[in-house]
Request: fold
Amino acid sequence: MRKLLFIVLLIPVCLFAQNKHTGIWLLKNMKLDFNTQPVTVSNIVLASGSRASIANSEGQLLFAYTDVIRDKYLQTLLNGTVSYSERPMFIPMPGNERFYYLFGNYKYSLIDTTLNSGNGDVIEKDIEYNTINIKEIQAVHHANCRDIWILGVNDTAYIAYLLTPSGISNSPIITTRLPTGATTGGNYSIFSVSPSGSLFVICHSIDSGTQLIAISAEFGTFDRNTGSFSRSQLYQSFDYSSAYKCAFSPDNSKIYFAATSKIINGSQHQIIQVNIVNGVADFANLDIVSATAYTGFQPFGFFQLARDGKIYETLGRKWINVINNPNVLGSACNYQQNAIPTASTQQGLPNFISTWFSTNYCELDFFS
Reply:
């Protein structure tokens, strides 16, 4: 080891009340505060867009990552000049929230919150923990409710590193990834884990070598005890040219995809809902809950579940879209375009430990 409220449909706000680490999101020149109902939106000034943020156990901003690691006042930490080109994630040290990690796909930095007059400073910087090519990281709590799995995927394997109070494991748990349906060229994978920590989905675009021609989606289970993955379903469709984000509903019963359908003279951005019944994803009966045509514009961006039980979406445009009732079947999920207008183009959303959005797997006071 390396050393070192009220009801929203059927989802009570108290379900998420303990997960205050996810309470503050910093985006490009704006802040979303989920400690209020509804979310409070305010303007901030950043030289570049934030790609990660974390609040303390009281829901107050602790750190952000833009091009550097910043403190709660958005000032650069003394040793905070680090570089993570992918979508990184802040993770508290298991059992000791004096320390916070910033994890990227290959490296991490470690922050001591007590230094610099309580504003924090980086004490370990750009430490390589992963030599395996992975495309995006996610994280869930181990079944012991303390340790944390750092999860990744590449074209041939699922990867799980265990983070404990002693540090990150030297050797990951590797599960062989079955073929994804790509016949030629490569594919780009978007990886999401359910709030329960026990389900995963990977959506990806299939590349012919010259263009995107189809999409695939993998669905299966993750064992929070052993760190192993098990794929149970593979869906493929040539009706779409690309799939670029996916997310689970708070109650783990729905998957949402954003995909581009093949239509003439443009592209159609579709939000696709997949129902999960008895652990099986119903890919045979996709529900298109929104379809919007764009000409000369390729959608992108991210989904992210929030502690208010809603899923937020960036689309590379000057607004944020919201799935207001993601647990509900069909169009009643209430996908709302342009829910939050913004002054600048929004692409990124912060990445969080998935199990922070559930209280079903651990005692409620685990998050306090």
Observations:
- The chain has a mean pLDDT of 86.
- The first strand starts at residue 7 and ends at 8.
- Helices lie at 115-118.
